[in-house]
Amino acid sequence: MRQHVSTWQLQIAKQRFSEVVRKAECEGPQQITKGGIESAWLISAKDYRRLTKKKQSLVEFFQNSPHTDVEICVERRKDRPRKVVL
């Protein structure tokens, strides 16, 4: 079961920290509140790595594509745009 968010009061989360960590690993992010107000989130290392993973540029995405028969032009054309009569 993933992505079941539990809400923990700060004092309870401190007392049951191991359980909060286990639930973050097995069930998804755990919300910590302080005085009834959202204060922090505890997430698993796996979720953290996924969220902070460097994103590919669109060019890199296409360059890594298995469709190698498609030509990708990385350079922008330097000629002027065509004139349009309105």
Properties at a glance:
86 residues; alpha+beta; YefM-like fold; three-stranded mixed beta sheet; 4 helices; 35% helix
Task: Please sum up the structure shown.
The chain is α+β, with helices and mostly antiparallel strands. The chain is built from 4 helices and 3 strands, in the order βααββαα.
In CATH terms, the superfamily of the domain at 6-63 is: YefM-like domain
The overall pLDDT average reads 86
**CATH third-tier fold name of the domain at 6-63:** YefM-like fold
CATH architecture of the domain at 6-63, please?
3-Layer(aba) Sandwich
Helix content estimate: 25-40%
- Class derived from helix and strand content: alpha+beta
Question: What is the CATH C level class of the domain at 6-63, in words?
Answer: Alpha Beta
Biggest sheet: strands, sense, closure? 3 strands, mixed
The number of E-state strands comes to 3
> How would you write the strand order of the largest sheet?
1-2-3
Low-confidence stretches: none
| Helix-strand sequence | EHHEEHH
In percent terms, what proportion of residues is strand?
15-25%
* Number of DSSP helical runs: 4
What is the radius of gyration computed over CA atoms, rounded to a whole number of angstroms?
24 Å
Principal-axes geometry comes out as elongated
- How widely separated are the two ends? 60 Å
